[in-house]
Amino acid sequence: AEEAVRNDELVYQHDSRRHEAQWELSLLTQLDRAIDNGEVWVAYQPKLDVKTNRIAGAEALVRWTHPERGPISPDKFIRIAEEFHRIERITRFVVNEAVRSAVDLAQMGYDFSMSVNISAQLLRNPGLPGMISEILAAHGLPPEKLVLEITETDRLDRSSRTFQMLQRLVQSGLRLSIDDFGTGNATIDYLRYLPASEIKIDKVFVQAMEANKEDYLLVQSIIEMAHSLDRIVVAEGVETGTALEILKGMGCDTIQGYYVSRPVPFMDLIDNIERKHVRMNG
Ligand code: C2E
Ligand code: MG
Ligand code: MG
Ligand code: MG
């Protein structure tokens, strides 16, 4: 009987894995159409400057609202897109939307920088700098206003193509941010060698620091280390006023998290900025 149960389990595991594979395949085949017909869109999460208490930037985060299945997490479909060569298409869409929004905000008089996420995989694509510069030129946004958030799980070899790519992007005037700092192996290498202007402390540390002394000390040391190397520090995943106060006390420059705002449609971002804004002329 025990063996029968075991067999059932195996069959079940096999079935659910096959289900999973079918589901991924169906997502993939729907993705192209989803971009064309507006199911894929961009949400913006504001970044609050702690010292001035103003919103000086936002991060563009891709969203897919499926007509039957509802919202599909980017963690899920970005991975599928990377696996099946759709990441370039998605990134072109997101960067184009984000740059257009940044130009809209500049025209409204806001001094604003826009961040976009770039997959590690795309950093190995030699077409990336050209794609970004074309979009910037088409809308007329200076490269300094665009921040590329990068994550990498491999060590950063300074002779690698990825490293050369990152240098090229910086030379073209774009700014780099090291996303999810503290979770990959490459993060110290990146901090040491890359001309990144910003680091983002991963939300796992930010969320644990209120209850856990080790995490508290870790966040504190990351901020000190980043500042001594002249990097701006962003804390992600700030959900409480207490976390904000702690980070302020530690000298953190910028925060992002549900405490300030969830990622929202562009119209809601504008409302948010109008309440806490930076105007260029007075
Ligand atoms: P990320 O770039 O590290 O983005 C931060 C994630 O944390 C976002 O999840 C955001 O909604 C969430 N978040 C923000 N504040 C809080 C908070 O206070 N509490 C909690 N629990 N979560 C918070 P999201 O939007 O689901 O995105 C997940 C990941 O998907 C992103 O992580 C990024 O790696 C990837 N991603 C999203 N959009 C894009 C894109 O356009 N291109 C690429 N390549 N990756 C993207
Ligand atoms: Mg990010
Ligand atoms: Mg992050
Ligand atoms: Mg992440």
Summary of the model, kept short:
The chain is 49% helix and 19% strand. The protein contains 10 helices and 9 strands. It has an 8-stranded mixed β-barrel with strand order 1-2-4-5-6-7-8-9, surrounded by 6 helices.
Which helices and strands, and how do they pair?
Blueprint: H1 2-36, E1 40-49, E2 54-66, E3 70-72, H2 74-83, H3 87-107, E4 113-118, H4 128-139, E5 146-150, H5 161-171, E6 175-181, H6 187-193, E7 198-201, H7 203-208, H8 213-228, E8 232-235, H9 241-249, E9 254-255, H10 266-275
Parallel strand pairs: 2-4, 4-5, 5-6, 6-7, 7-8, 8-9
Antiparallel strand pairs: 1-2, 1-9, 2-3
Helix pairs in contact: 3-4
The structure holds ligand C2E and magnesium ion (3 copies).
Residues 179-180, 200, 236 line the site of one magnesium ion (MG).
Protein name: Diguanylate phosphodiesterase
Keywords: Membrane, Transmembrane, Transmembrane helix
Domain EAL: 24-277
